[in-house]
Amino acid sequence: MESLAASFSASTTTILNSSSKLHHHPPRRFRVLSLSLPIFHKFKTCPKFSSKSPNHLNLLIVRSSSSSSITAKPSSEFQKKGGRDRKEEDNKLRALRELFTKPGVNVDAYIIPSQDAHQSEFIAECYMRRAYISRFTGSAGTAVVTKDKAALWTDGRYFLQAEKQLNSSWVLMRAGNLGVPTPSEWLNTVLAPGCRIGIDPFLFSSDAAKEFKEDISKGNHELVLLYDFNLVDEIWKESRPTPPKEPIRLHGPKYAGVDVSSKLLSLRSELRHAGASAIVISMLDEIAWLLNLRGNDVPHSPVMYAYLVVEIDGAKLFVDDTKVTPEVMEHLTNAGIELRAYESILSEIESLAAKGANLWLDTSSVNAAIVNAYESACYKYPWNSATKSRRKKTANLDSNGQSGGPCAVYRSSPVSLRKAVKNDAELEGMRNCHLRDAAALAQFWAWLEDEIQRDVILTEVEVADKLLEFRSHQDGFLDTSFDTISGILVSTIMIELNYET
């Protein structure tokens, strides 16, 4: 068994014991199994770990004296008070709260989600507003700031990371644990009745915004949609990273299998069948798939920030044109797609309503700003008095796909369903990708076994970097789908381990 073990150097790890004190274990060496043989039951004897390995963790569970449910303990009770980080954090929160009374704002609380305007979980750095205001960098979470409180919700993958990154100005809400309120429940508890709660409508899907509005109405609160500016951006100012400018590239027919014109023809057939004359697509992966384009705006995701509006007789791509190469421009022109400025999407939506277009809206993914802009525009025109139903499924169209007045068609995105059914070229590409990755993994296992035999000391970071090196040597490699999560013993309690934090 010794030939299957290696010595690793573990980074400093913080462990919480049952007395709620923090203990810091210095770097230590300990024995681990080779990753090529991870299943213990295959061995005749159970592998032995070094006696220097830490003892079992004692988990802290706090039980409320007035209830049998388990409740979350605020992160502020686990962390040191004061210090430079506390002062810096307080300055951000103070600046944000000062904006609450700004003319045109006038709110008592503000919600800062993780998503961008396209409901992406993984986003460009310039849109990491929740991370900026709270310093919590996990991919999932929601920050809520009132005039005197700040709380952050995240799931079990990030509890330990949030404990480390949040300072005592914040209360950590462990979403999913018994007794932990939702953001709306918490606001209904801590705010006096009749308060105004602000959100950036671009950062919430229409469905999410409507659900939140209904939930806070139980506390007699009002949801305020702040279209003109994002409050976090107002205090981020010059230090905010610039939007990504990486060029868009073509995804050739060898890999796509179907050309753009054929995909658009099929989509327009579905529009007619549903009684719609246009559709707005905001999910970045759907746009990339439909147009056979790929981008590099989001780490580990081959997408570009854009909106797409497809009509019966045309299409418009709303994107930063500095990212459009001559080759991509020719590709779009051949498919009958025009370019528009990314920021002009709302004016286009209003124009569609003005000319009587029935717009297909997937309210589970399209943001509240777009949906509300269209619904509001529909009510501006007298000719629409007979078609004001908010849940109309079909409409009578003329030969150009237009009806007597604008009306939304509320359905799930047809692009998502089409994209899920892979054609032969896509299936072949997926198989070949897995074969190439398997070859890289085989090289990695062989390298690791050799290091084990030589009793080389390795860190989790070195192992992850070596795996990336082997993968990057494969034909067609562009990027990984996410950073390798590498952990040894104590480090494995960090489910989404990130050594930058």
UniProtKB/TrEMBL annotation:
Superkingdom of origin organism: Eukaryota
According to UniProt, the name of this protein is Probable Xaa-Pro aminopeptidase P
Q: Which residues form the Creatinase N-terminal domain?
A: 94-217
Write out the coiled-coil annotation as residue ranges. none
One GO term in the molecular function aspect is: aminopeptidase activity
Database matches in PANTHER family: XAA-PRO AMINOPEPTIDASE 1
Query: What family is this?
Result: Belongs to the peptidase M24B family.
The UniProt keywords, alphabetically, are:
Aminopeptidase, Hydrolase, Metal-binding, Protease
Underlying gene: LOC104215026
Pfam families tied to this protein: Creatinase_N, Creatinase_N_2
User: What spans are recorded as compositionally biased (Basic and acidic residues)?
Assistant: 78-90
Q: Where are the annotated segments for Disordered? A: 70-90
